[in-house]
């Protein structure tokens, strides 16, 4: 009986859309690969909805995933895809070279054909985060939090002057020692730490070019090993609060969480927790799946496994409205009447 009840409840549509799972979020941490050199793998995003300061209302943030170095570019407003590509060339590519991979969210600038074609011609891979899962670009999101806290500390009383402190915010971020590498971004990229204030000491002799390259390689190797160690530590810590992800196959149906989807219903507390079921069309990576959504759903169809729940076929009732179903067993004739196994 317990097995039959469990199977019946799992296949109940009303239970599936109304009940939230009580287990840990699905999907172990799948971190991005560790780069081998500075400014080869980047993360980009925007800080928006800022008060006007020097005719600027947003910040374009570019983060190097190797050294954790950042570039903060003030803008008058959200740029188009072509303007964003030109900003990347003017402020990043011409100083640090063309990268190998760029991670971003699914903003309109980053999903446009212009952005993809621009980087495709340069041989740069464009990686987009899965739907409603900003952790895919977690390093950039974390950097945005630190920058926002810095600006809030200095500008909370006069918020229209944040643009004046943006250069110091970038300098401070690039001078801060990173726990993952054990170095500051300046040390990791330039192999030395510029002083925060004028230095009165006598400069040392200029080293040879060979020594500079050897020292750079030593610093980068050390940073790479530190990053791998920090990645293993972060992965172990994150997996303590996550469960193993269920394995889905293309063609299988799943329920989709409504945690980040705005439903046109008056009360969120009484709204369904899941919608669907939807068919899986593709497995993008071990923890990301693409669903076949209806055309009227104006959201990207790729989702993290933690937002999905397996769909179970409903168990038909043995009798419906007094009519015996096809699989109803033959009755046993007893003295007190008919009985069913």
UniProtKB/TrEMBL annotation:
SUPFAM superfamilies xref list = Ribonuclease H-like
Task: Name the Gene3D superfamilies on file.
Answer: Ribonuclease H-like superfamily/Ribonuclease H (3.30.420.10)
The cross-references to PROSITE patterns, in alphabetical order and at most eight, read:
INTEGRASE (PS50994)
InterPro entries, sorted = Integrase_cat-core (IPR001584), Retrovirus_Pol_polyprotein (IPR050951), RNaseH-like_sf (IPR012337), RNaseH_sf (IPR036397), SH3_Tf2-1 (IPR056924)
Q: Name one GO molecular function term.
A: nucleic acid binding
Q: Where is the Integrase catalytic domain?
A: 34-193
A Gene Ontology biological process in which this protein takes part is:
DNA integration
For this protein, the record's PANTHER family field holds: PROTEIN CBG26694, PROTEIN NYNRIN-LIKE
Report the protein name in the record. Answer: Integrase catalytic domain-containing protein
């Amino acid at each position: 009986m317990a097995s039959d009840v469990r199977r019946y409840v799992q296949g109940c549509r009303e239970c599936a859309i109304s009940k939230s799972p009580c287990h840990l979020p699905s999907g172990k941490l799948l971190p991005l690969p560790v780069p081998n050199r500075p400014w080869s793998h980047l993360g980009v995003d925007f800080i928006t909805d800022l008060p006007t300061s020097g005719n600027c209302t947003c910040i374009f943030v570019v983060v190097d995933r190797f050294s954790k170095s950042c570039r903060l570019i003030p803008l008058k407003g959200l740029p188009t895809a072509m303007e964003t590509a030109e900003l990347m060339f003017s402020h990043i590519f011409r100083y640090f070279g063309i990268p190998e991979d760029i991670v971003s969210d699914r903003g309109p600038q980053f999903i446009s054909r212009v952005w993809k074609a621009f980087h495709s011609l340069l041989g740069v891979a464009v990686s987009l985060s899965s739907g409603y899962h900003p952790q895919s670009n977690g390093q950039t999101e974390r950097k945005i939090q630190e920058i926002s806290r810095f600006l809030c500390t200095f500008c909370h009383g006069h918020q229209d002057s944040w643009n004046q402190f943006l250069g110091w915010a970038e300098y401070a971020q690039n001078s801060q020692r990173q726990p993952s590498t054990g170095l500051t971004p300046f040390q990791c990229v330039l192999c030395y730490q510029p002083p925060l204030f004028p230095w009165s000491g006598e400069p040392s002799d200029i080293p040879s070019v060979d020594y500079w390259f050897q020292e750079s390689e030593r610093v980068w190797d050390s940073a790479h090993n530190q990053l791998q160690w920090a990645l293993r530590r972060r992965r172990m810590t994150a997996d303590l609060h996550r469960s193993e992800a269920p394995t889905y196959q293309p063609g299988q149906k799943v329920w989709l969480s409504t945690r980040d989807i705005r439903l046109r219903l008056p009360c969120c507390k009484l709204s369904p927790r899941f919608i669907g079921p939807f068919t899986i069309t593709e497995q993008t990576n071990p923890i990301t799946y693409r669903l076949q959504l209806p055309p009227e759903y104006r959201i990207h169809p790729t989702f993290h496994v933690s937002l999905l729940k397996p769909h179970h076929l409903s168990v038909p009732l043995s009798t419906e409205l007094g009519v015996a179903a096809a699989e109803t067993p033959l009755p046993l004739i007893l003295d007190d009447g008919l009985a069913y196994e």
